[in-house]
Predict the structure.
Amino acid sequence: MRIAIVLNTSWNIYNFRLGLAKALLAEGHQVIAIAPEDKYSEYLTELGCEFYPVKMQNKGSNPLKDLGYMWQLYRIYRKAKPDVVLQFTIKPNIYGTLAAFPLRKLIINNVCGLGTVFLHDNFTARIARSLYKLSFLLPNRVFFQNEDDLQLFVDKKLIKEKVTDLVPGSGVPLDKFMPTPFVCHETFTFLMVARLLYDKGIREYIDAIRLLKQAGIQAVFQLLGAIETDQNLGVPKEQVEAWQAEGLITYLGTTDNVAQYITKADCVVLPSYREGTPRSLLEAASMAKPLVATNIAGCKQTVEEGVNGYLCEVKSAQSLAEAMRKMLQLPSEALQAMGIASRKKMETEFDEQIVINKYLSIIRGYAILRKRQAQKKIGVTEIKPQYVV
């Protein structure tokens, strides 16, 4: 069958859905990658995917541009003729669904996280929630990355529970993010990996560092991630430079090889306000690193308090500083044991193959149904994929 993978960047497909694409290709399916074009688009075609570029506005809601994005998807779906569309992130989920449904495609969505849509109550967020309610009447299956997000959608009547399911985030490729021999660095090193958005808890991280330094605690505090251009939500470049000049953080910029920085860290931190299931924590845990994260949807699923890390209160620099202080004061044996527990948790609960198998199971079931319908000489236009689950 022809399977479309639709995301907001080619980078996202290549970095977070590569295992899924490879699994689909290995089963003999044709994979169609649909996303804005970037340098990773070529990597997808080299892998064996067909690639269709689209233009989309990732941030905010411009009705004309969003309708234009939906029209692009509709035209691509008509031309590429996918049997199944796998859509990820908010705009592909919403506008891809509205584009695919009239063409009678099997629609499988993935809510990767709620982000600003539910953290804020501005005009854009209200529009997005309304569009979710409209478009999520139509998919065959919608995957959520944690129980809290799923229940929120059900409680707000944005979706019918019977079409929902859970997956452990995007999963983590365990063979790619492998533990290295344990080393307790001479100067304890904290690493935060995230886009530089205030909602990721950047301000709390900085304020917690100030509190630790005021208490005389010596450690290295690193920050890795792209600076966002959204002036309302993103941390300006000038602010990051000011924090560096103050001696609070070492800003590492961006990288295609995050594992090299995780290896050199003693603990990975994410004080985010809300997540789906954060890939940065999954990758760090897979590499046997202890974690410090907020006790919120998405993050708390990755941390067992006192076993592989510590949880802190959301939007509380004091609570975050206390969790970080407890971590760096652990003896090396306890720190190593936490890392081992992190890796074990990834192996049993967050293996990427768990996610891939969920998708393959639905696609195999749909293929069987199509074969039976073909044997009964039922025309393709008579197939009702919205009832296939």
